[in-house]
Amino acid sequence: MEKLKLLISGEQIAARVEEMGNQITADCAAQSVVFVAVLKGAAIFLSDLVRQVPLDATFDFIGVASYGNPRGPKQEKIWDSTGEVRLTKDVEQSLRDQNVILVEDILDTGLTLSFLKRLLLGHQPRSLRVAVLLDKTSRRKLPVQADYVGFSIPDAFVVGYGLDYAEKYRNLSGIYVLPTAPVGP
Ligand code: 5GP
């Protein structure tokens, strides 16, 4: 395993996710909510977040991929979010007239979130809010924001707590910086 540098511990994440859950619970004021998590990176965040929201709630998953994202020698995804986003898996339940909370692992350039917000608004929900665990504000290319942000982080490639590099490290409890950040061409 490459040497990873701890950025946010599992304990810090747990405390912040509890706060985010409390905020969502207060904002949704006893209404029902549908959480929509982006595969695969947001799966762990979703599972912790929903357990901090004692409302009438369901959850679903959506999948996206980026056109033009280059692949490395082992077909691994190389860190470059400049490609066009496409849908690989749509939600399975109707979102019409529902209070939807989109759950994403990390907000970087904003391309993915802009695409997903547009897509989900097309389902005509009653409301749409966005929760992201991590936000790299300095990398933004599109003017999009999340309603709930776990941690703002510097421009570094991070793994753990659902986030991968070549499908590895998703099972780590904390967030770590990969010392040799993968770069685009
Ligand atoms: P955006 O479209 O905002 O540029 O990128 C969002 C997506 O890029 C995330 O959902 C994630 O898949 C990927 N991404 C961006 N930064 C990182 C990072 O530091 N680590 C990992 N593992 N993925 C990242």
Characteristics of this structure?
9 strands; six-stranded mixed beta sheet; 21% helix; binds guanosine-5'-monophosphate; 3 helices; globular; three-stranded antiparallel beta sheet; Rossmann fold; alpha/beta; single chain; 185 residues
> According to CATH, what is the class?
Alpha Beta
Helix content: 10-25%
Largest sheet: 6 strands, mixed
Content of β-strand:
25-35%
Q: How many structural domains does the protein architecture include?
A: 1
Characterise this structure.
There is one protein chain. By secondary structure, the protein is an alpha/beta fold. The protein has one domain: Rossmann fold (3-Layer(aba) Sandwich), CATH 3.40.50. It is built from three helices and nine strands, in the order E-H-E-H-E-E-E-H-E-E-E-E. The protein has a six-stranded mixed β-sheet, with helices on both faces. Strands 1-9-8 form a three-stranded antiparallel β-sheet. Strand 5, helix 3 and strand 6 form a beta-alpha-beta unit. Helix 1 (10-28) packs across helix 2. It binds guanosine-5'-monophosphate.
SSE layout and pairings?
Elements: E1 5-8, H1 10-28, E2 33-39, H2 43-50, E3 57-66, E4 85-89, E5 99-107, H3 111-121, E6 127-135, E7 148-152, E8 158-159, E9 175-177
Parallel strand pairs: 2-3, 2-5, 5-6, 6-7
Antiparallel strand pairs: 1-9, 3-4, 8-9
Helix pairs in contact: 1-2
The structure holds guanosine-5'-monophosphate.
